[in-house]
Every structure is written in C-alpha cells, then in structure tokens.
Write a structure and sequence with these properties.
The complex is a heterodimer. Chain A is an alpha/beta fold. Chain A has helices at about 1-15, 25-30, 65-70, 90, 115-120, 135-145, 160-165, 185-190, 200-220, 225-240, 245, 255-260, 270-290, 305-330, 395-405; strands at about 40-45, 75, 85, 100, 105, 155, 175-180, 290-295, 335-340, 345, 360, 365-370, 380, 380-385, 390, 395, 415, 425. In chain A, the strands form six sheets. In chain A, strands 7-6-8-1-9-12-4-13 form an eight-stranded mixed beta sheet. In chain A, a hairpin with a 6-residue loop joins strand 14 and strand 15 (about 390). The radius of gyration of chain A is 23 Å and the shape is globular. In chain B, the strands form five sheets. Chain B has a four-stranded mixed beta sheet. Chain B is built from 32 helices and 14 strands. Classes of the chains: A alpha/beta, B alpha+beta. At the A-B interface, helix 1, helix 8, helix 9 and helix 10 of A face helix 1, helix 25, helix 26, helix 30 and helix 31 of B.
C-alpha cells in the first residue's frame, strides 16, 4: 500500500507553482531530464504576439521588386553576408551572437492567431478539442527540473496569453507565476518584508514554529502536513532572502540602464515602456536564478498600417533585446541561457488591407535564437525573392520545440501523465532537430 | 491503472528474461489477426508512442492498438519494397531483426530470439505471411479466470484468458495478452499471467487482448488470522461494509474523533464555513447523545449547504462557454445556472428530477410562445437591472445548460456521460482506449440521442418566419426595457431558445447553419460523426451505453433526450445513481469508493462494491433524496473517525480506516479567512460584481464573476478554483494541491495582511470585549481553529505574545500564526 501513499504524497506535496518539492527521489522515477550536462540551464521567451513582419525585420529583401520590398532599407550586420532591417541597428551589431531561422513555420496556410500561438508555445498542434491541453515550455521546465532555491521555476511578466500559459495537462502546480500589470504591485509586496516589519515577522515565525512543534508532538508525521510545513519554511526563507522582491524592483536599475533598454528617454515608444521594462525585469529574474521567463512585447497584428506599426515597435525591441543579450553576455549568463525572439506567424510581404497600407497574416516568419548553445552569426533556411515561400531547409514548429528542449537537457520524447492519467509525449510528432542552429 | 506505459517497460524487460514459464502452446500456424497483431500490442509496437502514432515511427505505421489488422498487414508487406517480411528466409525479415534487436531499432529490443512471441511472428512468416479473414477474428467475449480471488502473501495464481470469436471458435490467449496490476504493492504479474502475491490489500489486474479488455480482482489477507481487532460501534450499514473489509485485511480503524474536531469538520464539509466561537462552546457543553446527528440535520438545512453543492454542480456541469467570440464572456448566464441550481438544492428536489429538468430542458417548458416570451423579458430585465436572476431561478428547466458551446451530438454525449454517469468517453472520439471498454460505436450510438437540440441563432438576423415570430414576441414583451435592452434582442436574446427539432427540419437547419451548427462532421447526415487524425466514423443507431439492443424511434417530435432520462432512471442502470453517490462519498471521505470519482469505467472497480451497491440502492429507494445520502454518510462512524492514524492503518488510503486530511477548497478557504478576520468580500480594493448583493460570500457567488484582475481573482486562482472550461471532461480541474504560492499568499499578501489588522474586524472586537490576555488567546483559537488552546499551547502563546511591543501586535501575531497553520488550512 506504500505506493498509493507515496503517490498521494507526491500529488499534494510534490508539485508546486514554484517547482519547489519534497525530496527529489519521489519523482526521479518520472523525470524527463536528459543528459546531466545540457548546454542551456535557463530560457527567456520574448513573444511578439500578433505576427511581426519578417520582411521588415530579420528577413529583408532589398533586391525584391519594388512592390515586395517594403519601406525599410536593409543594413549590414557585424557578420558578413547577413542583413537585417534598418529598424534594428543595435541587433545588427550583435549578429554574431544569434541565429536567424527563416524557414521554420506552422505550415498553417490560414495563419490563425489562436491555433498558431498554441502551436508555437507548446510545440504541439492541438487537433481534437477536449483532448489534454499541452503545456508550454516553462511548465515543462518547471516539471522536469529540480526547483531552484528561493525563486519560482516559471515566471510570466505581463498578463497576456494567460489562459494558454496557465492551463495544461501537467496541472496547476506547474503554471507560471504571472505578474500582470494590475497585480504587479501586490505581488511585489507579497514577496517583500519591509525592513521595519522584520522584527515582527521574526516573532510571527517563532510563534508558528513553536505551535507547529507542539502540534507535531501530538500528531504523527502525516506526510501531507509535513510536506506543507516544508513549503511554508521555504516560503518564509524566500520572504527573508528577498531575491524575488529585489529582482522585480526596477528602482535598483540605473537611469542609464532604463534608457538602454528603451524604458525611458527619447526612444520611448507607444506601449514601449511596459514592454521594455518587462525585458529588463526578465533579465533580473534570470540573474536571480529563475529557470524560465516568458514575456510579451507589443501587439503585431498590423492590418491597418504595417509601416507605422514597425516604426513604433521595432526600435523598442531593438533596444531591449540587444541590451538583454549584451547584459547576459557581460554577466557570463548568455552561454547557458536561451534567448528566443519570435511570434506565431509573419506577415504578407505585400500590402493587404488597411487601404493598401496594412499587411495580413502569413505563415512564413522569423525566429531569432541566442545563447544556450545556439550558434552565433548564422542563418538557417531561406525564403524566395519576396520573402513569401520557404526555399531552403524547411522546418516545422516541432523541430523548434524539440531543439529547444534538447538544448535545455529535456528529452522531447519523455512521456508525461496528464492530470486525468493519460500518457502523453512532450512533443508528439517526431521531427528532426534544427542542427544548423546548434553550436 | 494510471501508469500504463511505465508498467509496459517494466514488463517488457521481463519478456526477455522469463521464457521458462511459458504455459500455453505456441501456435504453429498463427493467424495475423488473432496472434500476430496481439503480439504487436503486447510488445508495445502499435502503441501511441511508437508505430501506432498517427504518422507512424521510423517509417512504419501501424493502426493504434491494432484496430485495423488488414491495414497493418498491407503496410507490413507492401512498403519498403517488401523488405520487412521475408517468407523465404524468415529470420532475415526486417521486422523480426528489429524486434529482436538484431539490427539497430529506436525502440530497442522488444523480444528475444526463440521466445514464444518471436516464435509466433516467425511461424507466421514461415507459413506465408498471409492475412486471414479478419472479420472472423472479432472477439465476442473474453473470460478471465479466476475472475476474483482471495489470497495470502507469497501465493501464486495463474491467470487464464480465453476468448470466443464471432465465428464461434474459442482460444486460450493467455500468452498473447498484456497484463497489468493496478496496485503493485499487492501483486505483480508476468507476461504469461502468473501473479505473484506481494502484500496485504486489494487490486485489479487488467488483461488486454486487441479489441477486448478483461479484469480479475484480488484481495490479499494477512498470512496470520487477525487476533486483536478492536471492538468498534457501528453507526449504520456503511460501517458494517467498511469494517468487514478492514477485518479481512487486519487493518485497525482509527478512533472516533473528538467533538471539537467533528464540529469543525462537519461544518466545513456541509456548509463550507467555520463554526463560530459561540457554536463551538455550545456544542462542547451539549451532553445529549444525539448531538452529532442533530448538528448534521441543522447544517444540511442551512442555505450555505445549497450554495456549496450548487458550486459543486457548477464544477461538474461546467456551465460556461456561452456566446463564443463575445468579450467579456457572458458570466450572467453562469449566474443564472448557479442560482437555478441553488434554488433546486434549497428545495431539496429529488436528484433524478433535477437531472431531468437539466437534461431535457427546453426554453418554453411546454408553454405558449407568449408565456415564454414574457418570462424571457422579465429575466432579461433582471440582467439589465443588475439583479439576481430571480425570474430565471424559478424556471422549471435549466435551458442555459444547452446554450453552451458543444451541446450537440458527440460533444454533448461526452459531457452528459461525464456529468451524470461519471464516465470518461472522450478517448472514444479517436480510438478505443486501452484501459476502457467503450468502442467508438458506443459513443456514436449514444450521441444520436443528442442530435436534435438546436438553439436558434439570430446573430445574423432571423433566418425564417418562425425565428422572426420569436424575436417579435420577445420585443413585444420587453417593450418597457431601456433601448439598450431592446437592441440586444436580435443579437443576444435571439439565441435564447432551446427546443427540440423535427427530423425533417434537422437536415434543412443543418444545411443553413453550416459548420457553426454542429461541432463535428455531422453536417451532411444529421447523424453522430467523429473525425480525428485516425479517420471519420459515423453511426445511425441509437443505443444506451452498455446495452446491446438499439432503440428505435420514428415518432418524430419526441425529445430523444427523454429516452436517456428513462434509461438513467432504470433501477438497474449501472452508472446514474452510482455516479452521484460516489461523488458525494468522495466529497466527505477524500476519495471515491470508485476512484478517481468520475471514472466509473467497468475496469476501475470499486474498493467496496457491496457498500456502493447498498448506498446506491438506498438512495434510489429514498427517491433520490440527496439529503438522505448526505445524512447517511455523515452519520456513519467511518466519516466521524479521527484523522490520527495507528500503526496498522498508517499507510491505508483505499479502505477508509482513518479520516483523510484535505485542504479547504478555494472559495471555502477564502471565505473562512474573511470570516475569521471579520471582514467581507468588499474589503479594501475588491468589489462585489454587479448583480450580486453586497457582502455576498465567494461560495454564495459561486466565484463566477471573479475572472478579471482583482486580488480576489488572484487568490481564487492561487487556491485552485476551476475555470470550468466546457472543453475539459474531468473533475480534476478543481485543484486541491498545496503549493508554495499559497503559503506566500497567506503569509504575506498585502490584502491578506490588511484583513488581519482591519479596524472593523474580529480582532478589534476581541480586543475590545476581552480584557485578559488569556481570554483573548482563547477567543482567537476558537475563531480560527474552532477549539480552545491546549494548556501547552496557551503557555507557548503567552510567552510569545508577551514579547510583542503591544497586546494588539501580540494578538495580531497569534492570529497570523493560526491562519497560517495546518490546523486552519486543512480539514482534519
């Protein structure tokens, strides 16, 4: 009967939002961890939801016929033969740090925001309704890795795409800690014990510990209660260590840094402050040891005006992401941290809608991957003369997902049990890794 | 049962090792369908993770779990230039080389050269690798012997599996089956069905042969007879069954819990609230023998009991997913459903009647268009005036249940199966689940009862004359509504009416409404259809789950959902009464007699079949009276046991030898927190949603409106309130795990902190009313953990509280400590 007890124990005690668990042996048997030495230990996903125009950013076509060329020039980068859009001058100087994938796609000709977002963020295409909801990368990381001390396993900065990121067959225990705009302040306060309150907090902890001890003298060690006591202790430790609270506190950044990230100053764009700040918070969370950070920058569904949208959004992306890569590199974290920049689709490289100024959904797109064992200064795949069709090394989303998991040391073929007890593979379809992108 | 594939691997490694115990003969001329495909299944070749995947694996694609032998045969022989099967030189056949690990195989070595499995595959090749007439090999039935057995540790039992094919022939297929033990602490089984008994307890052993699943059950008693089983007083028949099993297993039950524990437990479990300090005091001094029963009766009549179960039924029925595409989602529809359910539970309507009024709901409830339109207009007025749905909750039937997405054909059959029968039919959409007995045909036949329930949609304006009449009637009745309400009629109110359509109109309606009408492929036929990556299936028959006879019905406008109701009301219905009895049991005892409680698959046997039988029969005999059911369970000794375990029952979960500790559910816990702090939901920044009375608790508001971004939403989500997603078909959506975020919330969320020291709160009142610190401490204990402190706790608390800068801070520290303690968060 021990197994049942253990399983119950595991269910109550073994899963948590903060990935924080009871002794690891309990779940070692079901752990999808791959080799001990994986290239990447952390990841930040910068999500450009809505479909950023690939032609106007990481797949420019300066020699295309005028009607497909777009309004922005292509500029050289610090890697010979690679060009990006003039809207990305700082990223151009960092091209030796990342790989641009131009040939990975959902293959969804209709380019549906909901379906494609789901596909990209989970690596699986959900074909049949009411089948289990696939987990996103952060939840799988939270489930697969031993929890870090004092910080959560998976944090989402900003509240978008929440349903998709929150719900999965792994259960609520592996959902992210989500910092939405409105909750931000409360959550930051939740993670902070102000200096002045520390003496009282210490008294509170003394009393609860004394009462718990007294209670335990009467009770036997009920595993469920024991498990909760451990969580509580770790929670108190986190409150006292203040690592999370500090990570979220942007007042600790210099004005110069806020400006570099585009969060203040002349380059502050519409909606840019929040987006740029999220990236900065993301870097601080990575530094604090959070294994997986997801955040969203802007909305990219430029049906009305493609060029204005690009002019508004890309400079902030350029500042924030370039600063992020520079800072991670400078702190020695880039080697072990994957930085992923992508959306769920690209856009038509010709005007469509918006009275000739808009652009429409298009399945060809870009993915940028830096750090975490990915190559620098590389381009994978190619598109035709007008950035419409993929002409070289076509990949599907599963390849992207499998490559990400492999770099993180997680076996993409690992079989999880869903909350209703069904076995299911992390990435269901078997597709090749994107080896050209791996260093 | 849960860990199918882990077990798979464990067993497979034994395949290689234990050939010596082969019992049955290896057929010399194996048939592809009867022998070869079963070996593929047994070795895992055609599982969903390997070649059974939709796109196959490593170039070879087999049908999932061997569902289509002809197709498998064709693929095996004709693809890759026939290299897979070599009739002239059998051992050089690629599929044999791969299976035996002679050449690199991603799936590893699955069987050994010379093993019986290998021999079957090889003999088939030698005999010409032919395809036999597959239809003859359909299995009529499977018999596993011994079907049930009582044994002692170290015993060995040889299971035997016999199948009868449709052509009348029978065969011993023991060696071709896949065996799996449910509880591996109790027994182990090898690939030949040899069971080795390990420990005391009970388990099922699932036996699978393609297209068929069988089961054997095993009870293991201690080697020595029980000596000193304690004498315990049975309260009712429940205890008889539970104690009988405990005696057999020689597991000793826990003591009866004390009065304070009982009061807190039963008040939380029945009414979702804490007892007040005064209630605790009164209960403790009551000396009458029947005080527990009286308390149970009193609690069952409280409005919060109805609120608690209305919330549970909202979880089970998942009344969400209205007017897709509108934002914000129409939560008022959820409120209608919640209030309707709460009203029925307050009235204590018989469960079967309540279900009938949900399952066969129509908008008009047999009234004229005029009468219904008047009601609909009054109901709309409630919504626009931001009032509780009092008109709606007085309605006869719950028609909003049918206004959700996914309310026709297969989708709804799955939902009805889950909500009212405790079945998980969703896997049958694509394939036969390896651990379940429902083929696609059963699901489709059941779905045909739910094909004719459209709700007319005027999102794009009325489609025909009848639709226009409805809109006109609504407009007339709703004349005195503000302009905004009138405008909404065609757009939102037009999709109000649920009715049963005639067969001849169905085709026309379907054609017009196109893809928006039916969720799956029923568009062209009007008959249940499923489409999955594995193909499209359709059926024209109507048949109840588990019945062998089809139902014929030509009498046109009859509501076929009523047939389902009649079937559910048959006393011998295997699921209907059991599903609710088992769910109520699980609510009080922490796990179902069948567990998980919403998985009444014949292959997931009850731990106490006689108990479930007697409880269900009693429930039916008492005219489906839910309060009878609650009362009977609550009065049992089994429910009133202590959560403190003894040496013999410490590890028991299956046999109800002690009370199962559990965390308070989201709404109950947060309401209890507010109750202790003496503040209401309106506290601080939080707002009660429009249409709800101020001061309403989360449980009474069903927590349905809190979907925005308030700290209440955050708290509800943190403690696992379910989304009630209409797509999810599992009770597991409500999450009762303990997490670290919860610990952080209770310890330091600003909203929670502020409530403790609220100037108008309970602590302020205690400080004002009681001068002595001892009294204050006692009051705080009574209010939070529903008992006075023990002398030791009093001493500890006094010492700590004295260190605080003021008595007020001292009391705050105590209140904080108790609200963060296990005694508060758990029901025990």
């Amino acid at each position: 009967m021990n197994a049942t007890t253990r399983r119950d124990f595991l269910r109550i005690g073994g899963t948590t939002l903060f990935g924080l668990t009871l002794p690891d042996f309990l779940r070692a048997q079901a752990s999808p961890r791959g080799g001990a030495q994986s290239p990447a230990r952390q990841m930040i996903c910068i999500w450009l939801g809505g479909g950023p125009p690939h032609r106007d950013s990481f797949d420019p076509k300066p020699n295309a016929p005028i009607e497909f060329r777009g309004s922005f020039r292509a500029i050289p980068t610090n890697v010979a033969g690679i060009q990006v859009s003039e809207l990305l001058p700082r990223m151009a100087r960092l091209a030796d740090k990342y790989t641009i994938i131009r040939s990975c796609t959902t293959g969804d000709a209709r380019a549906d925001h909901g379906k494609d977002t789901n596909y990209w963020l989970t690596g699986n295409r959900r074909r049949v309704p009411q089948t289990p909801k696939y987990p996103t990368y952060g939840s799988v990381v939270a489930r697969s890795r031993p929890a870090p001390v004092g910080v959560p396993s998976f944090v989402v900065v900003g509240g978008s795409d929440s349903e998709l990121l929150m719900d999965s067959y792994l259960g609520g225990g592996y959902a992210p800690l989500m910092f939405s705009q409105q909750q931000g302040r409360d959550l930051q306060d939740m993670l902070t014990i102000p200096q002045a309150r520390l003496p009282v907090f210490n008294q509170e902890m003394d009393l609860i510990r004394a009462l718990n001890q007294e209670r335990r003298r009467i009770d036997q060690m009920e595993p469920l209660l024991e498990g909760r006591d451990q969580f509580q202790q770790r929670a108190f430790d986190m409150l006292r260590s203040a690592r999370m609270a500090e990570a979220l506190d942007l007042r600790r950044e210099t004005p110069r840094n806020l400006e570099r990230y585009g969060a203040v100053g002349s380059n502050r764009a519409r909606g840019g402050k929040t987006s740029c700040e999220s990236v900065l918070i993301g870097r601080r969370l990575l530094e604090a040891g959070v294994p997986f950070v997801h955040l969203r920058m802007f909305s990219w569904d430029f049906h009305d005006n493609n060029d204005d949208g690009c002019r508004n959004n890309f400079p902030s992306v350029d500042n924030a992401v370039a600063s992020l890569i520079e800072d991670l590199e400078q702190r020695g974290l880039l080697r072990t941290t994957i930085v992923a920049l992508l959306g769920e689709m690209g856009r038509t490289p010709w005007p469509q809608g918006g009275g000739g100024r808009g652009s429409d959904h298009w399945p060809t797109q870009f993915v940028v991957l830096a750090g975490g064992g990915f190559r620098g200064g590389a381009v994978v795949g190619a598109t035709d003369y007008r950035a419409a069709e993929i002409t070289d090394r076509p990949y599907r989303v599963e390849s992207f997902a499998r490559t990400i998991y492999t770099q993180l040391g997680i076996n993409p073929d690992h079989e999880f049990q869903t909350t209703d007890g069904r076995p299911i593979k992390t990435i269901i379809e078997d597709r090749p890794l994107i080896r050209e992108a791996i260093a | 049962m849960r860990r199918v594939l882990f077990v798979f691997l464990a067993v497979l490694s034994m395949t290689v090792a234990s050939n010596s115990r082969v019992r049955a003969q290896t057929p010399t001329e194996p048939l592809f369908s009867r022998h070869v495909v079963p070996v593929f299944s047994k070795l895992g070749c055609n599982s969903g993770g390997c070649h059974g995947m939709v796109q196959g694996r490593g170039g070879l694609r087999l049908s999932l779990f061997g569902a289509d032998p002809s197709l498998d045969h064709e693929r095996l022989l004709k693809e890759v230039a026939g290299r897979r099967v070599n009739v002239l030189e059998p051992d050089a056949s690629l599929f044999l080389l791969k299976a035996a690990g002679q050449v690199p195989h991603e799936g590893g070595q699955r069987t050994a050269l010379g093993s019986s499995d290998y021999q079957i595959l090889r003999n088939w090749v030698t005999a010409g690798a032919k395809l036999d007439p597959v239809a003859k090999s359909n299995v009529k039935r499977m018999v596993v012997t011994p079907a049930s057995q009582t044994a002692k540790p170290k015993d060995r039992i040889a299971l035997k599996a016999q199948v009868e094919f449709v052509d009348g022939s029978t065969e011993d297929v023991t060696n071709l089956c896949f065996f799996e033990v449910g509880n591996r602490e109790v027994a182990d089984v090898d690939v030949h069905g040899n069971v080795e008994v390990l420990g005391v307890g009970d388990t099922s052993i699932i036996v699978r042969y393609p297209g068929q699943v069988g089961m054997a059950t095993l009870v293991v008693t201690p080697a020595k007879a029980a000596a000193n089983f304690p004498v315990v007083q049975e309260h009712n028949f429940i205890d008889k069954h539970v104690l009988n099993r405990l005696k057999v297993l020689d597991v000793h039950p826990s003591e009866l819990c004390d009065d304070a524990t009982f009061l807190r437990r039963v008040t939380l479990d029945v009414s979702g609230a804490l007892p007040t300090a005064d209630e605790v005091r009164a209960f403790l001094v009551d000396t009458k023998a029947d005080k527990r029963s009286r308390k149970i009766d009193e609690l069952l009549s409280r409005p919060r009991h109805a609120a608690l179960w209305a919330t549970r039924f909202m979880d089970i029925l998942r009344v969400t997913g209205f007017t897709p595409g509108t934002f914000p989602p129409n939560t008022y529809e959820e409120y209608r459903a919640y209030e309707w359910l709460r009203s029925r539970l307050l009235e204590n309507v018989a469960y079967d009647d309540m279900v009938e009024r949900i399952l066969t709901a129509t908008s008009r409830d047999g009234r004229s268009l005029d009468e219904w339109a008047a009601e609909a207009a009054a109901d709309m007025k409630d919504e626009i005036n931001r009032q509780q749905p009092k008109t709606y909750s007085a309605r006869k039937s719950l028609d909003v249940f049918w206004k959700r997405r996914m309310t026709t054909d297969v989708d709804h059959a799955i939902r009805v199966g889950h909500a009212f029968l405790g079945l998980r039919l969703q896997c049958a959409q694509c394939h036969r689940h390896p651990n379940d007995v429902w083929p696609q045909e059963d699901l489709l036949n059941f779905a045909n009862f739910f094909m004719r329930v459209p709700h007319f949609t005027t999102m794009a304006g009325p489609r025909n004359k009848a639709d226009a009449e409805v809109v006109a009637a609504l407009k007339t009745k709703a004349k005195d509504l503000p302009a905004k309400g009138l405008q909404a009629i065609p757009k939102h109110f037009g999709d109000r009416e649920i009715f049963v359509i005639k067969n001849k109109d169905l085709a026309e309606k379907t054609k017009k409404a196109g893809s928006s009408f039916f969720s799956s492929g029923a568009k062209s036929t009007g008959f249940a259809t499923v489409t999955s990556p594995l193909g499209t299936q359709s059926s024209r028959q109507m048949r109840f789950l588990g019945d062998s006879e089809a139902v014929t019905a030509n009498d046109d406008p009859v509501d076929r959902r009523a047939f389902v109701m009649t079937w559910m009301r048959r006393p011998e219905n295997p699921f209907f009464a059991k599903a609710i009895v088992n769910r109520v049991w699980a609510h009080y005892l922490g796990r179902g007699i069948i567990d998980p409680p919403d998985d009444l698959s014949p292959l997931n046997p009850p731990s106490h079949p006689e108990l479930l039988q007697e409880l269900s029969a009693g429930f039916i005999e008492n005219k489906y009276d839910l309060r009878w059911l609650h009362r009977t369970i609550l009065n049992s000794r089994t429910y009133q046991q202590s959560s403190m375990t003894n040496a013999s029952n410490r590890h028991d979960r299956r046999n109800f030898a002690s009370f199962a500790i559990r965390r308070l559910s989201a709404e109950v816990l947060l309401d209890a927190y507010n109750q202790v702090a003496g503040v209401d939901v309106l506290f601080g920044k939080d707002r009660v949603p429009p249409a709800m009375p101020s001061g309403i608790s989360l449980l009474e508001g069903a927590s349905i409106f809190y979907r925005g971004d308030s700290s209440t939403t955050f708290a509800l989500n943190t403690f696992g309130r379910p989304e009630r997603d209409v797509e999810v078909v599992c009770d597991c959506e409500r999450d009762d795990q303990a997490t670290m975020l919860q610990a952080l919330y209770l310890a330091n969320h600003p909203q929670a902190r502020k409530k403790i020291s609220a100037s108008e709160g309970q602590l302020a009142r205690i400080l004002q009313r009681h001068a002595s610190m001892d009294q204050r401490i006692t009051e705080i204990f009574l209010a939070t953990v529903s008992r006075p402190p023990t002398p030791n706790e009093m001493k500890i608390t006094q010492t700590h509280v004295q260190k605080a800068v003021s008595p007020q801070v001292g009391c705050e520290i105590l209140l904080w400590s108790l609200l963060n303690s296990n005694d508060f968060i758990f029901n025990r």
